[in-house]
Amino acid sequence: MTTNPPFRPREVPTRHHEIVIVGGGIAGASVAFHLAKNGKKDIALLERNTLTSGTTWHAAGLIMQTRGTHALTEIAKYNAELYATLEAQTGQATGFKRNGTLGVARTKERLHETARNASIAKSFGLEANMISPSEAKKLYPALNASIIEGAVFIPGDGQTNPVDTCMALAIGAKKNGVKILENTGVIDLWRTADGHYQVRTNSGVIEAEVLVLACGLWTRDLASKLGARVPIYAAEHFYVVTEAMDFASPNLPVLRDTDGHVYLKEDTGKILVGAFEPWGKPLPMGKLPKETAFIELWEDWEHFELPMTKAIEIVPDLANAGIAKFFNGPESFTPDLLFMIGEVPGSKNLYVSTGYNSEGIEYGAGAGRALAEWIIAGEPQMDTSFVDVARFHPFQINKTYLHDRTAEVLGLHYKMHWPSYQPETARGVRKSVLHDRWEKLGASFGEGMGWERPMWFAGEEGRTKNVYSYDEPNWFKYTSQECHAARNDAILLDQSSFGKHLVQGRDACRFLQWLCAGNVDVPAGKLVYTHMLNQKGGIETDITVNRLSKTEFLIISSATVHPRDKAWIEKHITGEWNVTITDVTSAYAVLSLQGPKSREILSQVTDTNLANEAFPFATSQEIDIGYARVIANRLTYVGELGWELHIPTEMAQHVFDVVWDAGRAFGLKPAGYHALEHLRSERAYREYQLDLTPVDTLLEAGLGFTVDWDKECGFLGRDALKAQKDAMPLRKRLVSFKLRDPKPVLFHEELIRCDGRIVGYISSGVKSFTLGTSIGMGYVSDPAGVTKELIENSRWEIEIAGKLYESDASLRAFFDPNGDRAKQ
After folding, report:
1. % of the chain beyond a pLDDT of 90
2. Over 273-301, what HEC string results?
3. Which of 125, 492, 588, 746 supports an S-S bond with 646, CB 3.0-4.6 Å?
4. What does DSSP say about strands 179-181 and 620-625: parallel, antiparallel, or unpaired?
């Protein structure tokens, strides 16, 4: 993730602080406020001009608590809680008011999505009421209700004055000892040999033990001086302010018309019309005005025409409104539309808070609190894995990639958030060497960490364009066929994108024994499914370890988290360990041959004995296939007999051709990542970031069997995990669910109800083509303990977009619960 620069010698500092924060906008002020509130006193906040002068000053100031996931809602809901009390805490008026959000839906699909989000709100005790078009018009009299299907009203939402709110946070921080240094521009920064950071400013050198970069658009360039990669890119962001309008009363709700790409809010008797247009305008940093404190960009009515037209459709009175102000200002965006916080990999005590995708006011309070807690404790205190700066791959700093992706990302704010949506821009970055083979077989490709991966196969004559749906996307037909092939014959999957790290060195075994909860001190050729934990026993990585020799281990992890996995391992390789880690992902292509006929197929192309006694489950051997020598791992992520073949990249096409030709007689079919997701869910195999996160433990996840409690060296997180084990029964457990009605489709985030009570939500769900109904997994919480008796003697329902569906519940998988098929 990082390219560590050589250390610079220490200069005599004009000031020394424990913590220095660069950036006086909402991000910097929030983390300063929360650090000081939690007892940190020796803090300096540097702002090159005046507070708020970067991008905070021109924010719209919307406050919306409900998000499309529980994790994001957990962060966003805190904003309203804090902003409601900030004036009382600091004496600074913020302009915060709870006038509510009215989110309208022009289509039935959008109404369904809106209802799903309203269900999420219930998990947090937030009021979110689905209402009819006529009820929406009563709340917003100027609304053209004839063009909407319905709406949601969230009375606890509202709006705030961004400048006043940021100033209140700064005042609160200052009252608790933070030094605010305005007009203090950063000229250069570096790290000293003893690990401190020095910042050259226009008023001298300031030294810090902990450095936080929270300077919006400018974070990327400053971080690069320290060898840190922070993938953000600027885009133009537009809104107009009308002249005074009769219907613009102070308590008018914020109107969000996502189908129309616009939001409308009351602004001192006027209406502010803002946009997240379908395709944004990325902006190279070189085009920003130099040495300008409060940046305003050029008007572009042609670009704003579509959202303004839609705004007039939804509120016809705008057609006759005078425009008092056309505003265009820069905002920073990330490749995945999620902000980033956390410690930069490879740079101890260097933190960032940036890339808020034009939602800094909406996330600033919660993100600032989360980062402050992280800095104080030395590790996150809530699930921040999805916004961790360590999640990005090194290529994602590429400016051309960011420029092209940002155009799409801006519009994704208000586009439909379809399950399994695939980005359209900046594609073709990373291709498996087998890409052309899959293409000829009719693959529809998706993107994961830049990799082009087959998602489903339409056949050589089929149409591969995705048609998204919450009910039955067009790939269900083909994915069903792939799943049936896996259960009855065999499938071939390309898993080349899985991350592969080689851990080597004299201390490699001892190091991994301490870092992993399982026992990896096994004979060479043994595969170990294991996890790395944090101090609280939470799961940080979900990996397979292949011991290659006394001093070599190959670690395999999911493509989408492998940069973060590497960062976690590197963080713990301190001077006491003789250990190195090397990313060898590109060295091997991986073909996964899975299904009851996989042994028969593989036997046609190798002379290796594949019988159980000669090649047991969870073992690895080097074998010959065709003219190649490959690493064959007897593993499965679909719940079937199978092998994952790690092939030297230059030999992969040959091996593919040999295996494919041999498999035709046995009904071998290509399969994509949709099939992989459906099949692994049937067996209740967990997936990181969905079913496993840093706030879940192995015991709660039902993975206690992977733990070696008696290792002589112990392992990181053992004490916390052992304490939980000793305090049984568990108050939270991962449970499997199967809907009794075969029609509804589970994806994730749907509410779980036990005897009418909300007790959790679905972490991952699919339509099971094997079982004929939807299945899913989700964590259930109960203060008295989630016991077998509770599972078996309760009435279970899953809430999908406000509707309840009866479900069966189990602590075991509904398909092949003993795992016999993989070991046959």
Report:
1. 95
2. EEECCCCCEEECHHHCCCCCCCCCCCCCH
3. 588
4. unpaired
Please give the order of strands across the beta sheet that includes 451-457.
Answer: 430-431, 451-457, 443-448
With a cut of 90, say whether residue 156 has pLDDT above it: yes
On the question of pLDDT at 546 being above 50, the answer is yes
User: Is a pLDDT exceeding 50 seen at residue 322?
Assistant: yes
Burial of 400 (0-12, 13-18, 19+ CB in 10 A): exposed
Q: Given a cut of 90, is residue 11 above it in pLDDT? A: no
Residue 3: pLDDT over 80: no
713-736 per-position pLDDT tens digit: 999 999 999 999 999 999 999 999
- CA–CA separation, 213 vs 614, rounded Å? 56
C-beta neighbour count of 159 within 10 angstroms: 25
Q: Please, what's the b/e burial string for 251-285 (b: 16 or more CB within 10 A of its CB; e: otherwise)?
A: ebbbbbbbbbbbbbbbbeebbbbbbbbeebbbbee
Task: Indicate the burial class of 9 (C-beta count within 10 angstroms; 0-12, 13-18, 19 or more).
Answer: exposed
- Residue 740: phi and psi, rounded to 5, are -80, -30
DSSP code of residue 98: -
Q: Which of 154, 151, 336 is nearest to 259 (CA)?
A: 151
**Given the structure tokens 């807690």, which residue do they identify?**
373
Report yes or no on whether pTM surpasses 0.85: yes
pLDDT given for residue 1 in this prediction: 42
